[in-house]
Amino acid sequence: MAAPELLSDEGYRADGRRPAELRKIRARMGVFAQADGSAYIEQGNTKALAVVYGPHEMRGSRSKALPDRALVNCQYSVATFGTSERRRRPRGDRQTGELALQLQQTFEAAILTQLHPRSQIDIYVQILQADGGNYCAGVNAATLAVMDAGIPMRDYVCACSAGLAEDTPLADLSSPEEAAGGPRLVLALLPASGQIALLQLSARLHQERLETVLEAAGQACRALHAVLDRVVRERLREVTALLGD
Amino acid sequence: MASVVLSEAEKLYIVHGIQEDLRVDGRGCEDYRCAEVETDVVSNTSGSARVKLGHTDILVGVKAEMGTPKLEKPDEGYLEFFVDCSANATPEFEGRGGEELGTEIANTFYRVFSSESSIDLKSLCINPREHCWVLYVDVLLLECGGNLFDAISIAVKAALFNTRIPKVRILEDEEGSKEIELSDDPYDCIRLNVDDVPCIVTLSKIGYRHVVDATLQEEACSLASLLISVTSKGALTSMKKMGKGSLDPESIFEMMETGRRVGKSLHIALQKILDEEESLGTSRQKVGFLG
Questions:
Q1: A:38-57 residues touching chain B, CB 8 A cutoff
Q2: B-chain residues within 8 Å CB-CB of A81?
Q3: Which of A108, B27, B71, B118 is most enclosed, with most CB atoms within 10 A?
Q4: How far apart are CA B54 and CA B51, in angstroms?
Q5: What count of other Cβ atoms lies within 10 Å of the Cβ of residue A9?
Q6: Cross-strand pairs, A153
Q7: Per-residue DSSP letter, A21
Q8: Does residue A60 come out as left (phi exceeding 0), alpha (psi in the -120 to 50 range) or beta?
Q9: What is the pLDDT of residue A244?
Q10: How do residues B204-221 score in pLDDT, each as one tens digit?
Q11: Mutate to test the interface with B, among A51, A81, A120 (most CBs of B within 10 A)
Q12: pLDDT at residue B172, as a whole number
């Protein structure tokens, strides 16, 4: 049962948002010149950076190369100063390891890996400030970074979290809302086709409520898709202007 | 360290150019690249700074936490350095690949800050032998474009300047047990005096001359470099020779002189930027990675 403070009587959340409202999103592609693709995204106070190297030859063991498609290698890392309580290690613990595997799963569904057999694509996500929806911000940043690298994808990958306050589904949970202990759904969606690349639910949720929460998350992902699309088109305009077209 | 592969002809081109005091990007031997410094980039830290020196991108976050003072210095707080070479800079740093470089940089900073006058550690003490402030300085290496140590030291100084430590009061009961009370006002804090915080200047020996702020390509051509830490008054707090080659004593003295000169002007320029940011106060537009 979600704590009553999540939604006030007038229907506002702790930070003044409406239940279905996303936090302010600001994003930028091409942050680093040396990487093949890079992107930065801010969702409210959560800041995530993603960098893509590839497609390039397999590093490490050649035996792991897949003969018919590219290997997607991911790393998820949270800065030691990113959380309110200082982390001892940025990565290497079970949680970041699991999130890295989830990133791999999500992006293998979206990237057209058959176009680059026997090669490797590296996606490195760095969370600079964690204020709820960290993994989702990481996925969104990684989508932009993969696009910045020019790697063909089936569709955008938009991720968002959703929760429940009494009977109202909430979209895009912030850190205090996540800590409140209610159910938390993380959804990564390919918006054009409506296919789900990743679905994760923690804490208890009644089966009858699942549909509403899933719908809220889906709506949030589609709204996010509009924002990301705008960022990509803006970037394309910038780059073609620089090329003198 | 992230390295770049250069052909013999390219190396020769760089070396010959430097003999004539002309570097590939048009700088002189003692010029720094265009640097961008911004503080207060990450909000849930006590202080933070981001430095972009050419292609080198560093983010430093300082977190102040309460701890017990060290046994040999019971009335002082202390600094803890941690350097994370993230895979963003190069895929070689994935997993634990960047740990070696990270430990080397952290150890260098421990040595640089080991001088007693660098930072007033006594101001970090709350209760002698019981409580003190521990400043965890976490460095995140985002992009490697040569001259890491200089960029990191600039970022550390800027972050320490930006650090705001909340004021605490010690309340004593009748039984003598002490309680620590943090002030409620978020603006009621103590700032650190960074006037004596040293900055590192790396001088790389290329051919017969030495250059300041070497790019990755220039670092590939240099056999040896000297790392010196200079305070704003020109005092040296530490020195270290790095690289495979060897240096003769005259070069070392020459490099030290250049380093002091360059270091002093670096401090002046940095202090100017920090004071400008400070004067804008809360009305400053925070750009961060979006600009």
A1: 38, 40, 42, 45, 47, 49, 51, 53
A2: 42, 44-45, 48, 61-63, 136, 138, 140
A3: B118
A4: 10
A5: 6
A6: A111
A7: P
A8: left
A9: 80
A10: 999 889 999 999 999 999
A11: A81
A12: 78
State how far residue A173 is from chain B, nearest Cα, in angstroms.
18
Q: Which amino acid is at B65?
A: E
Residue A7 maps to a domain: no
Calculate the CA dihedral of residues A164, A167, A170, A173 and round it to 10 degrees. Answer: -30
**B57: closest chain A residue by CA:** A32
- On whether the CB atoms of residues B57 and B143 are closer than 8 A, the answer is yes
Q: Which of B42, B84, B143 sits opposite A129 (nearest CB)?
A: B42
Is the ipTM reported for this complex over the cut 0.95?
Answer: no
Mean pLDDT of chain B: 90
- CA nearest to A92 within chain B: B95
* Proportion of chain B in helix, strand, coil states, percent, rounded to 5: 30, 30, 35
Architecture of the domain whose range is B8-280: 2-Layer Sandwich (3.30)
Per residue in B94-128, pLDDT (tens digit) is: 888 889 999 999 999 999 998 888 888 888 888 88
Amino acid letter for position B18: I
CA-closest candidate to residue A169, choices A18, A45, A44: A18
Band of residue B55 on the pLDDT scale cut at 50, 70, 90 = very high
CATH code of the domain containing A212: 3.30.230.70
Which domain covers residue A134, as residue numbers? 21-244
The pLDDT score that the predictor gives to residue B270 is 94
Pull the structure tokens for residue B202. Answer: 């790396």
pTM: 0.92
Which residue from A minimizes the CA distance to B80? A88
What are the phi and psi torsion angles at A76 (to 5°)?
Answer: -120, 125
Q: How many domains does chain A have?
A: 1
